[in-house]
Amino acid sequence: NAGVTQTPKFRILKIGQSMTLQCTQDMNHNYMYWYRQDPGMGLKLIYYSVGAGITDKGEVPNGYNVSRSTTEDFPLRLELAAPSQTSVYFCASSYGVTQYFGPGTRLTVL
Amino acid sequence: AQSVSQHNHHVILSEAASLELGCNYSYGGTVNLFWYVQYPGQHLQLLLKYFSGDPLVKGIKGFEAEFIKSKFSFNLRKPSVQWSDTAEYFCAVNAAGGGADGLTFGKGTHLIIQP
């Protein structure tokens, strides 16, 4: 199993641009999550999903959108990138309580 | 809502020293507790977890943690650290029985082991 994979690994955006961060898991997990990690801070939950077609907001959802059309994929979309969205983004999945994390996407908005 | 406090933001130790990293949480109900480690340039990996039962849990790489309910604490310990333990350590919590609840993380402790 590849586990949780994320693409791209790095990206630089200009203010106002849009992009989609991809996340795929091959463990048939129902639950998937998006977190952001800022320097000196712990991870904060952006959005999560309990299954295909079901998503819900986390602690810091503003400026982001998600969709879950399949069990495997949980993309995160930034519509109008802002400097405050410069961060490292981690996707995670779980079957029960324990979450497994992907390698992250480092995003810089200039 | 839960919150997690990690008191030590930066810790520097010599090899073979003993380690204890503090973690306290705030939540009115029953919780699941986790320690994750992030090695330089890598993603988060689960070190250990506590759901119920024996409050002393053992994880990978010789780490252990003790859940003290009365103190709302879940401190991480290792009797003898190695240079390869240099990493960022995160304590995390979610509500027990919450199913898909996301994790609430502490700010992390940056541990540096000097050879």
How would you sum up this structure, described in words?
The complex is a heterodimer of chains A (110) and B (115). In chain A, 0% of the residues lie in helices and 51% in strands. Chain A has 110 residues and is mostly beta strands. In chain A, strands 2, 4, 5, 6, 9, 10 and 11 form a 7-stranded mixed beta sheet that branches. A 4-stranded antiparallel beta sheet of chain A has the order 1-3-8-7, with no helix packed on it. In chain A, strand 9 and strand 10 form a beta hairpin. The model of chain A has no long low-confidence stretch (mean pLDDT 94). Chain B is mainly β and 115 residues long. Chain B has no helices and 12 strands. Chain B has strands spanning 3-5, 10-14, 19-21, 24-26, 31-38, 45-50, 56-58, 64-68, 73-78, 87-95, 104-105, 109-114. In chain B, the strands form 3 sheets. In chain B, strands 2, 5, 6, 10, 11 and 12 form a 6-stranded mixed beta sheet that branches. Chain B has a 4-stranded antiparallel beta sheet with strand order 3-9-8-7, with no helix packed on it. The model of chain B has no long low-confidence stretch (mean pLDDT 92). Chains A and B meet through strand 4, strand 5 and strand 10 of A and strand 5, strand 6, strand 10 and strand 11 of B.
In brief:
The complex is a heterodimer of chains A (110) and B (115). With 110 residues, chain A is mostly beta strands.
